[in-house]
Amino acid sequence: MLEVKQVYKTYRKSGFFSRKRQQILSDVTIEMRKGECLGIVGESGSGKSTLGRIILGIEKPDGGEVLYFGKKVNDRKVRLGHISAVFQDYTSSFNPHFTVYEVICEPIMLQAKNRREDMEVKVVDLLYRVGLDESYLKKYSHELSGGEAQRVCIARAISTNPDFLLLDEAVSSLDVSVQTQILKLLSQLKNEMNISYLFITHDIQSVTYLCDRVIFFNEGRVVEQVNIENLSQVQNDYSKRLLSAVIAF
Ligand SMILES: Nc1ncnc2c1ncn2[C@@H]1O[C@H](COP(=O)(O)OP(=O)(O)OP(=O)(O)O)[C@@H](O)[C@H]1O
């Protein structure tokens, strides 16, 4: 379904006159099957979000390509309605002047022009799917808790019935108990809607909860990949260090 092929990315080093470039991603190759939940775990600064933005077609790689069902993700038509994302920073993920209703129906409007009454039914259905109800329709982002705001972001992300959802640190800034609720919700939606997840995080615990397979990512490179049931068999020292929070080697 998703193929990341030999992707390279550099950014210009900080400093206004700097011509030097910092290598962020090197030779990243990843394949993902339909229906799979793939975790990408790595330390802060390892390039996970950069890879996420390239997979979403928001940024271009310097080399290599990303294909979705064989077509380049740079083409908006390939992404529209099929690929969605939820990011860590739910407060800036939606316009503070928009109500929850407007936030959720924006992607649907881009895809098809539904009638307003059809739209309201659809948005209420989406709210129920993520554990909220119609009392949220007219609320603004500042009237929501972190967990509620992230539920609204998830409702928006699934509103176009995507086949693929990229979750970039989607639970990381929530309290532990709210994290568990959102992980449960994601797991439930994945089964109900048969969505494939690419779950980017630094938190190995949430990966073990949600993912079928994990890729360990260090300094912009894939260092190891393993099925979730074989986590205790990782070979790489970096992977072992990240796993030490959940497994004693
Ligand atoms: N637009 C940009 N311009 C220049 N440098 C950037 C840009 N975006 C990211 N970087 C740099 O690229 C490196 C990787 O950042 P990235 O956000 O991809 O890592 P990450 O693994 O997702 O980290 P975190 O979990 O902390 O978000 C960092 O050194 C960062 O400063």
List the helices and strands and how they pair.
Elements: E1 2-12, E2 21-32, E3 37-42, H1 48-55, E4 63-68, E5 71-72, H2 76-79, E6 83-87, H3 90-93, H4 100-111, H5 116-129, H6 146-158, E7 164-168, H7 176-193, E8 196-201, H8 204-210, E9 213-218, E10 221-227, H9 237-243
Parallel strand pairs: 3-8, 3-9, 6-7, 7-8
Antiparallel strand pairs: 1-2, 1-4, 4-5, 9-10
This protein binds adenosine-5'-triphosphate.
Quickly list its features.
single chain, 9 helices, 249 residues, four-stranded antiparallel beta sheet, alpha/beta
Provide an overview of this structure.
GO terms for molecular function: ATP binding; ATP hydrolysis activity. Belongs to the ABC transporter superfamily. One of its GO terms (biological process) is transmembrane transport. Keywords: ATP-binding, Nucleotide-binding, Transport. The protein is of the alpha/beta class and 249 residues long. The chain contains nine helices and ten strands. The chain has helices at residues 48-55, 76-79, 90-93, 100-111, 116-129, 146-158, 176-193, 204-210, 237-243, and strands spanning 2-12, 21-32, 37-42, 63-68, 71-72, 83-87, 164-168, 196-201, 213-218, 221-227. The strands form two sheets. A six-stranded mixed beta sheet has the order 6-7-8-3-9-10, with helices on both faces. A four-stranded antiparallel beta sheet has the order 2-1-4-5, with helices on one face. β9 and β10 form a beta hairpin. It is globular and about 55 Å long. The mean pLDDT is 90. It binds adenosine-5'-triphosphate.
Estimate the helix proportion, in percent.
25-40%
Order of helices and strands: EEEHEEHEHHHHEHEHEEH
What summary fits the major beta sheet?
6 strands, mixed
What are the bound molecules?
adenosine-5'-triphosphate
Query: Quick one: how many beta strands?
Result: 10
Beta-strand content bin: 25-35%
Unreliable spans: none
**Order of adjacent strands in the largest pleated sheet:** 6-7-8-3-9-10
What would you report as the Rg, rounded to the nearest angstrom?
A: 19 Å
Number of H- or I-type helical stretches: 9
Cα shape? globular
pLDDT average, as an integer? 90
Could you tell me how far the N terminus lies from the C terminus, measured between alpha carbons in angstroms? 34 Å
| Category by helix and strand content | alpha/beta
